[in-house]
Amino acid sequence: MATFTFDQLEAFATVVEQGSFSAAARKLKKDRSTVHQLVAFLEIDWGVELFNREGKTPKLSPDAIRLYKYATLLLEQRLEVQNIANNIGSDIEDSLTISYDETMPVSVLFKTEMELSSAFPYTRVNYLSQQKDLAIQSIQEGRVDLTLQLISYRSKPHKGLAGINIGSIHFGVYVSADSELLDHEPCSLQLMQTKKQLILQSLLSAELDNVAIFSANYQVLTRIDFLVSCLEKSPLTWSILPTHLAEPYVKSKQIKRCDVAFFDGDISWGCGLISSQNSDKGPVFLKAAECLKKAMKESHYY
């Protein structure tokens, strides 16, 4: 059976990537003769000529092309195993799961992911879309570590959970682009109460129904794209939507923002970060919470 060492694989792969034994030696901080020897012993062990050395620079032989691909894969796996072992020794979590309501800004999640992947490249961070009731259940069952959710002043504290307000999400009233309601701006509460209102399920999960539902004739929908499609085809319906989610549909002229007389300025509701009081908080968890708070503030959702 052919044998090899990781030092031999590293020398072989580095010669391929650097284009010469001299450049590989500088990269690896080894003598040129040592790199030559490592590759030569590998060729003997495998019984394969890895390089054609007739020219000024070594050329990878046809038989060695496939071996190079597997050699780099093994070297990457060795590095990953080493980093996972280092994580265990330093109490860095192997994985972390963050859930979020779909009204949360994607930019906040993306900034958080960029910082976490840079700081903890070998920790798997999962992102799950969950409405508040399912997110809280997932935290209680240990399947989610922290969640980003809309919150209401009516929300009762859940035993064993901790939550902090890290900003707010801005909302507006929207109608179809050709809605007759636009002829009555600013629309009165009495007028809007006579029209059908489309409600995002997220608002009900966040216990915002008492401040978000104004019409007795309302319909609940989960997905915003489906809600916008219904809004677009129904000229006398209206909805309260997060401005950052609605604006792309406004730009595509599917819907328009409608001024109403019963709201002064922007509508905004709190955004909370919820986690378990009982679980241990490792460095990845603490960094994730810090990044989410920072990203919310930098994204002007504060």
UniProtKB/TrEMBL annotation:
Residues annotated as domain HTH lysR-type: 4-61
InterPro entries per UniProt: LysR_HTH_N, WH-like_DNA-bd_sf, WH_DNA-bd_sf
Lineage of the species this protein comes from: Bacteria, Pseudomonadati, Pseudomonadota, Gammaproteobacteria, Vibrionales
One Pfam family this sequence matches: HTH_1
Keyword terms, alphabetized: Transcription, Transcription regulation
SUPFAM superfamilies with a match to the protein in the record: Periplasmic binding protein-like II (SSF53850), Winged helix' DNA-binding domain (SSF46785)
Molecular function GO terms recorded: DNA-binding transcription factor activity; transcription cis-regulatory region binding
UniProt-recorded name of the protein: LysR family transcriptional regulator
Gene3D superfamilies: 3.40.190.290, Winged helix-like DNA-binding domain superfamily/Winged helix DNA-binding domain (1.10.10.10)
Family the entry assigns: Belongs to the LysR transcriptional regulatory family.
Top-level taxon of origin: Bacteria
The keyword Transcription appears for this protein: yes
